[in-house]
Amino acid sequence: MALLVTSLLALFTLSLAISWIVIGVGIPLSHYFNIADHPGGHKEHDTITPFIGGTGIFFAIIIGLNIIDGSHLLSNIPYACMILSAITIFLTGFADDVLHLDYKIRFLAQTIVALVMALWGGVILLDLGKVFFSDVLELNTIALPFTVFATIGVINALNMIDGLDGLAGSLSFVSLLLIAIVTFVAGEEAYLGLVVTMMGGVSGFLYYNLRYGSRRRAAVFLGDNGSMLLGLLFSWLFIHLSQGETRAMTPVTALWILAVPLMDAVGVMIRRLYYRNSPFYPDRNHLHHLLVRASFRTQDIVYIISLIQLVLGSIGLAGLYLNIPEFWMLAGFTGVFLVYCYIIARPWRFVLFLRSLHARMGFTSADCHGVFVGNFPMKDTPSFVHTLVGELHSNYDYDVRIYEDHANTNEPLAYAVIELFLERDDMSSASQIRPLITSLKKQLQDYTGIRIRQFIKRDDQHDRRIGHKPVSADFRNTDRRSKSKSALIYRACSDGSVATPHYPLTRPMFR
User: Fold this and answer.
1) Is the pLDDT of residue 479 over 80?
2) In 324-363, which positions are buried (b, 16+ CB within 10 angstroms) versus exposed (e)?
3) Which residues of the chain does CATH 3.30.70 include?
4) What's domain 366-459+482-499's architecture?
5) What is the distance between the alpha carbons of residues 59 and 201, in angstroms, rounded to a whole number?
6) Cα–Cα dist 77/10, whole Å
């Protein structure tokens, strides 16, 4: 056991190092030869980014397989078939990244690789397990076409989920961790070595792809070359481990282990077909897109979806090792999938709910542009300006605007909008705005009724009242923040400029 653990740790470390070195060397070369993804269309990024993440994973896996083969652990893995399949799918993905292949060509290549895996490698879905209680659902004559269909489905599911920095890599790592548990318990040492090799390769890639510390955007993307390679190997692992007399897991367990990419891909394609669009037409209705529209930060989205994947995968393993009937595990997965379909069928409602939840939890919005300070007495405006400008001075590039709130008919009130000019990324928003809000709350704690919160510029897509129309003439005004209800009375900027338009104060702002 100790020798096995030591070997696996060495294999993981070596694979991580290979992936890290290959990608690190490849990034400047990719920029030189313009092998990179450019912003535009449905893409979230705003900078030119190399898509060679799969290259590091590819070399880590190829070298790792040679090491495993040399240690004589690879006796039950068709080595030549796996290497040929991996090279073919990787080159197809790389060609798609560079040349933007027609989807028919991609499907043809994926079909050929799936056939090679099934006919030469013997990795084929013969049954779907005991999904009808005690009876095993044999595929018989449709085993081969179903294997091809399932393989293509997994390959494209992982490709479709690759829409945010770190997302596809993190989900892959979580799923590989769960598969590692399955192979370890089943005593599949050769495949455990393969899984650990893949984990090392993915970890080396995530070093460049995740947002963490001072890194505000990915240095490299996974690319179709990486997502298709991982998708093929996931298919290989799931089929091999779920078939035979001494199967390590059930086919239903595989659904749970890769639940998020599978549900997301199928659910989005169903929605596209419902609206009479091509199932391959790109849109912004994936789960991660909904979270982006709800103002969650990129790294928070990756953590949330990865946690969801870990929970769902753990449910699958719990069902496997607690011997819960496969019928009930399939029913549970179907129930979760139907809930997901309901969510993406009405994305506007889900986004509004998430926005409300996001605000209540006190997270910093990715759309946040500054701080709003409201409900302070008009007569205290000079002292408020001193406090605000004093807090902002030399620390921020800012624009402070003070308005009189005409909506209040009793005591004259005012509110302040502090707009901060930050770098165009959500990490700057979180790291600079949250401390400012905390500091202002501490300094203004003696005032009662004052509201201090994030300032988000008005945008119709953020308004939960969209779609609701007044039903009578005396219906309440839906926009209580009408421009006619407030007047700008003071403005100060970080460059030292000061203005007091339209409504001059009766006493000087600074003494």
Assistant:
1) no
2) eebbebbebbeebbeebbebbeebeebbbebbeebeeeeb
3) 366-459+482-499
4) 2-Layer Sandwich (3.30)
5) 8
6) 20
Q: What is the pLDDT of residue 123?
A: 95
* Ramachandran angles phi, psi of 29, nearest 5°: -65, -40
Nearest to 78 by CA among 93, 91, 65: 65
Map 186-211 to HEC letters. Answer: HCCHHHHHHHHHHHHHHHHHHHHHCC
SS3 annotation, 273-285? HHCCCCCCCCCCC
Its pTM stands at 0.79
SS3 string, 73-87, reads: CCCCCCHHHHHHHHH
Alpha-carbon dihedral 63, 66, 72, 75, rounded to 10 degrees: 110
Q: Please state the φ and ψ torsions of residue 166, each to the nearest 5 degrees.
A: 85, -5
Distance CA 313, CA 291 (A): 21
- Quick count: other Cβ atoms within 10 Å of Cβ 278? 10
Handedness of CA 464, 469, 475, 480 (dihedral sign): positive
Is residue 29's pLDDT more than 90? yes
Tell me the average pLDDT across 247-259.
97
At residue 232, what is the residue type?
L
Q: How many residues does the chain have?
A: 511
